[in-house]
């Protein structure tokens, strides 16, 4: 882009950036407490036309949102016309007008700007505008006071702060005023009431775009030239993650893969690990059973299970393997799994079938689909009189569907077929009543939607089958005798030396999530489901498709179908990454899975919705998908 001309335009550049050494600074160069852009520069900033900008400005002033006289200024600009350089008066608009246009423009860049303005400016105003110590020391407090006044006025105009925020604005203004009175004596010291940016506050500005009002000719010309607006390459759409440790640079829409453990739960795990290391033999040798029983006493009623039905495993895949390897199969017996099942668990079915001579059978589930009944029909269509077991997900991984598991289990039992439910995503996402469900086996992860540390999961086995299920690792429990304790729990509770703290943190994770939002668990589940549905609507609109499944089949995950990848871009295994997923990460720092499944290779893009996510993150993803 070329500079519009040499102009006596106040200000030089607004920069929000991450320096190469990782130190984040906020630089605000002001003139009369604001910055100024021409219509042409605004068009470049928002990736739209000058006519469109002019129309929005006309409406802003006509509707009385802003007063034209208070937000515009004519500046002398030298611009090239043919071979001559001519000085003209050119109208410029201050930050209030720029924000107003930014909130009206319908473009990807406009969406990015709205996200940046709403989240970043509001967040840093309410935290205390975080100018770094070096700048305060070098330039004094004048710019800090101007920044507070500017942001307070702008954000109030656009209703970007709540009533509580208004009180903070008044407090900040008061502090800035008192600081001005003391400026002469403390010019090189931070004013009382201002604070050094915390690590999380500094990190929140990483990946925000550089908005350069600098010349394309280089930084030396910044002071004397009006300039091109540099593209916002990776806007920060993420609000404060609060108790989660997630990197603020990431647009993290993939809670479903591995979850994210919040700080209070990690703190509890740290306490337990220190206690273990202070007296390892006492902790692991004498107390572990009692400690696991205490967790079981909390977890079992939460999932609607009897105390004796619950054993601990490291992940749902381990639970599936334990069940499958415990089956006594004959050649010709059939094991059914679905084409939307988790690849690792489907591999376990194939492995057990190969060793025993059993036959693996694939039930092909529809996607997109119009009703949950289609899933029930597809599963039953794969069942014969030779079927011994059906492995089916409660919530599918690639397509994010909540399957009608009660109807599936009931229909299979009526046919004399047992069910192994892979509930990896269900614990925490959905209310569970496992004893009432009646499935032979049910396994679920606690590290996903229960937010426990990695390595926490459970296996539930119906009473009539409990003694036949053995862990994949046989250890001391195989011949131990402990009065009042079943062989089932003796074997699963001790599979060799390992770190039991992920299991022991389950009660802390449950308590944390229960208190996270009003309404407890039901409030959290409703919030996440609503966010997932809104996210899906945005993605469907961006892709020009209808919703691929009924709303009642959505929990905290939502997936949309994508066109099949070209032959050279197809994922060949679970360790391959789809090219689209690579681009979203490399170019936009959006973490979202793109999965291949079925035949011919079908692809889905799946988003997760957890309490730390915001709708603006999905808006950004949708905007990017429109350009792919």
Could you describe the 3D structure shown?
It is a single chain. The chain is of the alpha/beta class. Among the domains are: 6-229, no CATH class; 517-627, Aspartate Aminotransferase, domain 1. Helices cover 42% and strands 15% of the residues. A 7-stranded mixed β-sheet has the order 10-16-15-14-13-11-12, with helices on both faces. Helix 5 (108-127) packs antiparallel against helix 25 (615-627), helix 7 (142-157) packs antiparallel against helix 8 (163-181) and helix 12 packs across helix 13 (280-286). It is elongated and about 95 Å long. The protein starts with 5 loop residues before the first strand and ends with a helix.
Largest sheet data? 7 strands, mixed
- Please estimate the helix content: 40-55%
Please tell me how large the radius of gyration is. Answer: 30 Å
Number of helices: 25
Cα separation of the termini = 23 Å
The geometry reads as elongated
Q: What are the low-pLDDT stretches, counting only 5+ consecutive residues below 50?
A: 1-30, 122-137, 157-176, 178-236
Count of beta strands: 20
Strand order of the largest sheet: 10-16-15-14-13-11-12
Q: What class, by secondary structure content? A: alpha/beta
Approximate strand percentage: 15-25%
Mean pLDDT figure: 79
In short:
By secondary structure, the chain is an alpha/beta fold.
Topology (SSEs and partners):
Elements: E1 6-7, E2 14-18, E3 24-28, E4 36-38, H1 39-46, H2 50-62, H3 68-71, E5 72-81, E6 84-94, H4 95-102, H5 108-127, H6 133-139, H7 142-157, H8 163-181, H9 183-186, H10 199-204, E7 213-214, E8 228-229, E9 251-252, H11 255-258, H12 263-278, H13 280-286, H14 288-302, E10 310-313, H15 316-326, E11 334-338, H16 343-356, E12 359-363, H17 373-381, E13 387-393, H18 405-414, E14 418-422, H19 434-437, E15 441-445, E16 457-461, H20 487-493, H21 501-504, H22 506-514, H23 520-543, E17 557-562, H24 579-588, E18 590-591, E19 594-597, E20 602-608, H25 615-627
Parallel strand pairs: 9-18, 11-12, 11-13, 13-14, 14-15
Antiparallel strand pairs: 1-5, 2-3, 4-6, 5-6, 7-8, 10-16, 15-16, 17-20, 19-20
